[in-house]
Design goal:
By secondary structure, the protein is α/β, with parallel strands linked by helices. The protein is built from eleven helices and six strands.
């Protein structure tokens, strides 16, 4: 518990069954209190525009329909409430989603098939200000910390072409190669080539590390 009180949780997911199941499960824990639900990123943002709305941890789905998906909602909510703890909970296990959520300001990233005790522990850790990550994402963050200590933002910025920066920004939004291709008006094959060049120039192993390093070094503006 936080200062002897229950941890207040907001559930954001576009599937009613998921929200109902999470609420029923979380309310069985003595130290958790579900104070609200939202079926979209827009609705979650609307709730937080009320200064009186108090929440400790937001459980955020990443892939939701509408103009404001989970990543965009995380970005907006952390700008409105910098101290807010957001735990991304998704059915997607891909580097792009993890990197985008963390770059946007999430403190954790878990999959929906996670064991119940790990989810409960993750919420408590998030409320306490700790990072909550899947193992492969945790390994990426550790490598990024080591790389960032030796990296030169200026050198990396000069090494990347304007088009590669466009692709990197799109990666930071959590877009897939197909979505990046459509957004930039290029082929998916060309996107793959750009991604390969980006990873090589940044000396990282995958998209998660590339986006996390870019955010950490402010190599691209995450807005």
């Amino acid at each position: 518990m936080i200062s002897g009180v229950r941890i207040r949780v907001l559930i954001v997911d576009d599937h009613p069954v998921v929200r109902e199941g999470l609420r029923a499960f979380l309310q069985m824990a003595d130290d958790l209190e579900v104070v609200g639900e939202a079926d979209s990123g827009e609705r979650a943002i609307q709730l937080f525009r009320d200064p009186a709305f108090a929440v400790d941890v937001v459980i955020m789905d990443l892939k939701m329909p509408g103009p404001c998906d989970g990543v965009e909602a995380i970005r907006t909510l952390t700008s409105l409430r910098p101290s807010l703890r957001i735990l991304a909970l998704t059915s997607f296990d891909d580097d792009a989603s993890a990197a985008a959520a963390l770059a946007a300001g999430a403190v954790g990233y878990l999959q929906k098939d996670v064991a119940p005790d790990i989810l409960l522990g993750g919420i408590r850790q998030a409320a306490a200000g700790k990072m909550v990550l899947e193992r492969h994402v945790w390994n990426s963050t550790q490598r990024v910390r080591q790389t960032a200590d030796q990296a030169s933002p200026g050198r990396l910025r000069e090494a990347l072409t304007d088009r590669e920066l466009d692709v990197l920004r799109a990666m930071a939004r959590g877009l897939s190669n197909k979505e990046i291709a459509a957004a930039l008006g290029i082929s998916e094959k060309t996107v793959k080539v750009h991604v390969s060049h980006i990873l090589g120039k940044m000396e990282v192993l995958d998209r998660t590390q590339a986006v996390l390093l870019a955010a950490k070094l402010r190599l691209v503006k995450i807005d």
